Amino acid sequence: MNSKFLSITSIFLISIGVLNGQTIDKKAMAERVRAEFKHSWDGYKKYCWGHDDLKPISKTCRDWYGQSILMTPVDALDSLYILGFKKEADVTRNFIAKNLSYDKDMEVQVFEITIRELGGLISAYQITKDKRLLDLADDLGRRLLPAFDSPTGMPYRYVNLRSGKTRDAISNPAEVGTLLLEFGTLSKLTGKKKYYEKARKAIGEIYKRRSTIGLVGRAIDVETGKWTNTDSFVGSEIDSYLEYLLKGSILFEGEDDELDEMWTRSIISVKKYLRDDIDGEVWFGHSEMNTGKRTDTTYGALDAFFPAILVRSGDIDTAAKLQDSAFKMWQVNGIEPEEYDYKLKKVTDAGYPLRPEIIESTYYLYHQTKDPGYLAMGKVMFDDFVKYCRTDVAYTGLKNVQTKERADYMHSFVLAETFKYFYLLFAPSSALDLKGNGVFNTEAHPIWKTWK
Ligand code: DMJ
């Protein structure tokens, strides 16, 4: 833990959640998070109901592809249930079931639509058993399938939902590999094997192109199978590929044990070549995938998911040290920058799009260790989040964490992920029971293994 929290070790203090004389009232914090979630949801509903996203400063709406596919309602639906807004959730569920159609002449980004919409529908189906949601997921999955028709089996980045026409062959491990949990579960729930097979082949094609030292690059051509950028790191464009190797091995344990081997081999290389110990701090930087040579010393808001993954894989020690570093990065400006050079101790990308990853890691670390320091860490982050990003109708991203200048957007992941992980950090474990039998997809949609 951060030295600020080091004195908090006794079992007694831990059990009552006291920190440096300050008691973290978990119940009150969970209620605060719920209230702020509801504030943002109400803002979306008041100004943009039926659209994809709310722009919280101008109070105008954004539809990603010109027509709405209900991005915010679908992404937020399981959060509404989990945070205890059942009535609101039921209304939203019925609205989605009646109004959402994927029969549209619309080119969508396969990765984003899979993690937000397919994942959201599957998770909400598992919570409610509303078959209409599974039918929508099945329809969406079928319309996304043409994306996999490349010479390698790795998906193109975009597909037209009506015509199946594809585009953009230059992709990356995250966009290719972050489909397995959703498509795999869709197979299990519908009995249609092709969903699993296509997504499983795609992630396997990335893995088999790893370098001799076991790393993957940041860009790949899905037609030739050649890397077009050999920079390796744990953040954006690679992040959730690693996440899905691990979570795929958990969700499909017993039937696809190769995934476990793929994860185990990959994490050994990642730790060996990307970990960077500097001034007593642990960071994960960039290296060239073939040589392992350090190329960059930046870490950022997207990399900050990595402690969560380390916890899930059992490496609490590295997770805790890396989280301490990430929290220092947060504290430089009182809110997290998109990218930070940990060697130069300098912000290199000053935006803050309300990302959830650092909170996700705090949630995993707290529930694994029960160290109240993580509650205090979460409270600091929540207070800053409210202070700088709250508007009169919702929450908005920042253009610059140094000046605190505001942008005008609220991605759907704010309701799907950011608030959910804040809430689950402070709520009792019973608020969401994965029963050792499920995982969160990369958009924080819980997916349960309801099959053997
Ligand atoms: C989310 O859509 C997902 O967590 C994705 O894996 C990465 N980016 C955003 C949140 O930052």
Task: Provide an overview of this structure.
The chain has 452 residues and is α+β, with helices and mostly antiparallel strands. The chain has a domain of 190 residues. It is 49% helix and 14% strand. It is built from 16 helices and 22 strands. It has a 3-stranded antiparallel beta sheet with strand order 5-6-7. Helix 8 runs antiparallel to helix 9. The longest helix is centred in the N-terminal third of the chain and has 23 residues. The site of 1-deoxymannojirimycin has 9 residues, from helix 16.
Summarize the structure.
This protein is an alpha+beta fold.
Helix-strand blueprint:
Layout: H1 11-16, E1 18-19, E2 22-23, H2 26-48, E3 53-55, E4 60-62, H3 71-82, H4 86-99, E5 107-109, H5 110-128, H6 131-144, E6 158-160, E7 166-167, E8 170-171, H7 173-177, H8 180-190, H9 193-208, E9 219-221, E10 227-229, E11 231-232, H10 239-251, H11 258-274, E12 275-278, E13 281-284, E14 286-288, E15 294-296, E16 298-300, H12 306-313, H13 316-333, E17 339-341, E18 346-349, H14 357-369, H15 373-389, E19 398-400, E20 405-406, H16 413-426, E21 438-440, E22 446-448
Antiparallel strand pairs: 1-2, 3-4, 5-6, 6-7, 8-9, 9-10, 11-14, 12-13, 14-15, 16-17, 17-18, 19-20, 21-22
The structure holds 1-deoxymannojirimycin.
